[in-house]
Amino acid sequence: MKILFIGDSITDADRDRNDPAGLGTGYVSLFAEKLAPLYEDTQFVFVNRGVSGDRIFDIAARLDGCLAEKADIVVLLAGINDVWHKYTDGLNFDPEAFAECYASVAQKIKDSGAKLVIAQPFLLNVPDKKRMRREFDLVLKGVQAAADKYADAYVALDEIFAGVSQSVSVSAYSPDGIHPTHRAARLIADNLIKKIRPFIS
């Protein structure tokens, strides 16, 4: 069974681009370490095709190459850069264009025959990122609409992190509100495994 992960730096997690089998140091690697021992009779192939800095439009442009992997399950985690890069690089954020592009990516993955697992992008409550929340909520709206139409499973990460950070400092989960700590990466991996296990025979 082949599981493909598509996304931005959160998925990329410093993977070795010269090693097609490299999983990086983030949630993808932890996911693989945790899932494989649960199914000793299943041979898994894990493929990380996250690219740091990618917006949804970048993912759309390289999607054919990703889908050439012929994965059984595809995990899509993207959306934060579409807002963040407005503030860091002055790039335009058009919520309608985002939603349309995200939906087309989701549909193309679904049409490939793979099970589609959409992981909700997240933004933790860090002071210098609060200004992004209004626009980020529009990202979440677009992601939710695509998930409702195309996803076989949905992992509400923004809601999960909002919940756990009520009792534990946000810094335990992200130093900047965007990139996950090891603790947060474990939480992402654990919640993905819960959603993906029904698809494993």
Written description of the protein model:
- This protein is α/β, with parallel strands linked by helices.
- 46% of the residues lie in helices and 12% in strands.
- It has helices spanning 9-12, 27-35, 56-67, 80-89, 95-111, 133-150, 157-164, 182-196; strands at residues 2-7, 45-50, 73-77, 115-119, 153-155.
- Strands 2-1-3-4-5 form a 5-stranded parallel beta sheet, sandwiched between helices.
- Strand 4, helix 6 and strand 5 form a beta-alpha-beta unit.
- The longest helix has 18 residues, at 133-150.
- It is globular.
Please render the helix and strand layout as text.
Layout: E1 2-7, H1 9-12, H2 27-35, E2 45-50, H3 56-67, E3 73-77, H4 80-89, H5 95-111, E4 115-119, H6 133-150, E5 153-155, H7 157-164, H8 182-196
Parallel strand pairs: 1-2, 1-3, 3-4, 4-5
